[in-house]
Design goal:
Distance between the termini: 41 Å
Strand order of the largest sheet: 2-1-3
Structural class: mainly alpha
Number of strands: 3
Strand content: 5-15%
Helix content: 40-55%
Order of helices and strands: EHEHHEH
Length: 97
């Protein structure tokens, strides 16, 4: 894995990523990278990925960027969410607390 990605890949908290080849995790010597690749066998939002792997958000962000730059993770592009819809969902979630 390269220490610095050559291209800046978007890694916002709601960006979804998936492994280009999930079996790539089997031969991975770094356990953190293997965990990310296994967790991304199916599209996973970046913030959920960090939570599921137990990695700090900043570490997960760097791993996602590096792996995407290497072509081992693919960014799943979806249509942009309506900011109002997201804010309403957050508000409903806060009210539920």
């Amino acid at each position: 894995m390269s220490p610095r990605p050559s291209a800046r890949t978007p890694a916002g908290p709601l960006t979804a990523v998936r492994a280009a080849d999930p079996s790539d995790a089997d031969g991975e010597p770094y356990p953190e990278v293997a965990a990310v690749l296994r967790a991304c066998a199916h599209p996973r939002r970046f913030i959920d990925l960090a939570a599921e792997t137990g990695l700090p958000l900043t570490v997960a962000r760097h791993l996602v960027r590096d792996l995407a730059a290497e072509g081992r993770l693919m960014v799943c592009h979806s249509r942009p969410a309506d900011d109002r819809v997201i804010l309403e969902e957050v508000l409903e979630g806060l009210k539920a607390l």
